[in-house]
Amino acid sequence: MLNVTRLLCDLEQPMDGLRYGRGSDAPRSAGDRKPVVVWNVSRTCNLRCVHCYSDSAAQRYDGELTFEQGKALLDDLAAFGVPAVLLSGGEPLARRDILELASYGRSLGLKFTLSTNGTLIDEKAASRIREIGFSYVGISLDGIGPTNDLFRGVVGAFDRAVRGIRNCKAVGQKVGLRLTLTSQTVADLDKIFDFIDAEDIERACFYHLVPTGRGRSTEGLTPEETRAALETIFRRTREFAAKGTPREILTVDNHADAAYLYLSLLEEDPGAAERAYELLLWNGGGKNSSGIGIGDIDTQGNVHPDQFFQSVVLGNVKERRFSEIWTDAGNQILAALRSRTTKLHGRCADCRFLAICGGNFRARAYNVTGDLWASDPGCYLTDAEIAPMAAVG
Predict the structure, then answer these.
(1) Which range (37-46, 228-237, 316-325) has the least confidence?
(2) Where does residue 383 rank: exposed (0-12), middle (13-18), buried (19+ CB within 10 A)?
């Protein structure tokens, strides 16, 4: 996860300690971080998004963690000291006891983020979410109006999501957008930023597509389209900062963004580029992400290196505590992911930005090629840009 506002505009941002090692609460190194845990609390969803990684539908699924199993999981996560728990789905609010579970987790001191499509957040739900003390509510949109509805498979989804956003803001709940970069959303990018401005939304996360679930049949962006999208995101982020209304703008699931941002800064302000590089170097990109700084627990209790790594199972919390699975020195998959930069081949292995990109996003490489150590096909940088400096000269 790349905080564009922090790196481009040199403005302090939430989670700077966890993300860039800044502040008294920062871990010693990015590799020492406890994981942010994504818990897919239910596969049920009232929408049918074309890029859904969990292939969810409006139906009941067997085998999901019970209320008591959920409480036991939260007990373990709190004792383990994870920095945050992201409640996701499917649609998490489709699970009737989810706010009760979140309230229990808050009593243990856990910090929660809610990842939702927003359509079920009426005034009562918004008040309850605020009362429980969610750090943040991320509402998914993939375009403005009909574009979003087409992408999310239900007419009226956009208007209902906007209502959810406004209900959250009315009770003082921090809220933001979560978007996936596809040809449809990229066409609406400036409109999306206008919407962020008009609705006074504090945060927006732009996810790069990871082909898994229904996302396997979703058309991704070309390298040229990706670069154009990043330029729009950079431009609009700077415009917010310049007029004194900065927003927390992030890109997610493509660590090549770190190198692209650095190269962009290097052309304009070498000093700013070096300051950004120092933060990116501490973070390490993909090297310290899946299996280290983030983990996932699916609806059945299976533990994965991240939510897009559904085919790689590390254990199950119905049988063994998450903390035990995560710290098992004998788990060969985790051990390999935690030393991934020595195993890469192809473009990733020889890239001069390996120290800040960390081999990019292993789930995408694995899902597309079947090879955990192949170059990430989502990298949009040219061979000349990633070549070692001696080769460039």
Answers:
(1) 37-46
(2) exposed
CA angle in degrees (0–180, nearest 5) for 66-82-170: 75
Closest by CA position to 103, among listed 71, 66, 80, 68: 71
**What letter represents residue 286's amino acid?**
G
Counting Cα atoms < 13 Å in the Cβ hemisphere of 149 gives 10
Residue from 163, 253, 146 nearest 205 by CA? 253
pLDDT digits (tens, 9 = 90+) for 48-85: 777 766 677 767 889 999 999 999 999 999 999 999 99
Which pLDDT score, from 0 to 100, does residue 55 have?
72
Helix locations, the chain, DSSP H? 4-9, 16-20, 67-80, 98-107, 123-132, 146-152, 157-170, 183-187, 189-198, 223-242, 256-268, 270-283, 322-326, 332-337, 347-350, 354-357, 362-369, 383-386, 389-392
Q: Which long-range contacts (CB under 8 A, 24 or more apart) does 188-191 make?
A: 188/143, 188/144, 188/147, 189/229, 189/232, 189/233, 189/236, 190/232, 190/236, 191/143, 191/144
What is the C-alpha to C-alpha distance for residues 359 and 299, in angstroms, rounded to an integer? 29
**Cβ contact 117:46 at 8 Å:** yes
The predicted structure's pLDDT at residue 393: 35
Q: Phi and psi (nearest 5°) for 267? A: -70, -30
Task: Give the separation between CA 322 and CA 66, rounded to whole angstroms.
Answer: 16
What is the pLDDT, as a whole number, of residue 229? Answer: 97
**Residue 214 — pLDDT band, cuts 50, 70, 90?**
low
